[in-house]
Known about the structure:
CATH superfamily of the largest domain: Probable tRNA modification gtpase trme, domain 1
Number of helices: 7
Radius of gyration: 18 Å
Oligomer: single chain
Distance between the termini: 42 Å
Largest sheet: 6 strands, mixed
Helix content: 25-40%
Shape: globular
Amino acid sequence: MKNMMKPIKHTPLHPTAQSLNARFVDLNGWQVAEGFDDLDAELAAARQRVVLADQSARGKIQIEGLVAGAILQTIWSGPQLAVGQGAEMESGQIYRLRADQYFISTPPGAEEETLQALTVVTQSVDDLITVTDLTHGRAELYLLGPAGAELLSRLCGLDFHPSVFPNLAAKSSSVAKTTQLIIRRDQAGLPGYRLIGAASLGAYVWETIFQAGQDLGVIPIGQTALDSLDI
């Protein structure tokens, strides 16, 4: 009998994690970094300084069209969003990037159910609407901790003060001379920033962040520590 198990997927940062002696774990079809250092050391760095995680396994869906907002309202009964604003969904978050463009972020594997729901709704709509699964074409880095805004400011010209860039805000900008979608996504009371850009540039952005944050004590963090922060 043939093995019917799906092949394990690797993120664009998998070789980088291997070079840092990461321990890996399978997560909904992906092999992700479980941890790099002692768990307590990773947690302390997140709470006191700044850490960087590879979150490229998360689902990433883009919806474009003049009726995109109306379509999303049929599967998500949340508030009307201003451009640059986001909100929580049942499984993930939704962000409005332009008047006619939205971005949905989901936990690893959850994008498939969201895509199916969007497909059912868009099939009954006459207006032009485009739904694109960006999961495999984008790297996603997560900068988390009290020094995160200071570190990101060294590589990006945006103002990251909470009054200007609050939790669940989303803006596209240049980071280390690469185009990134920057999403403020706090966790466990800590400021966090998701950087979503071309998969081919993920390793470069990761290395550039580490070089810029040496004096701030930045270290990599694995999935176990991230999950433990919420406990």
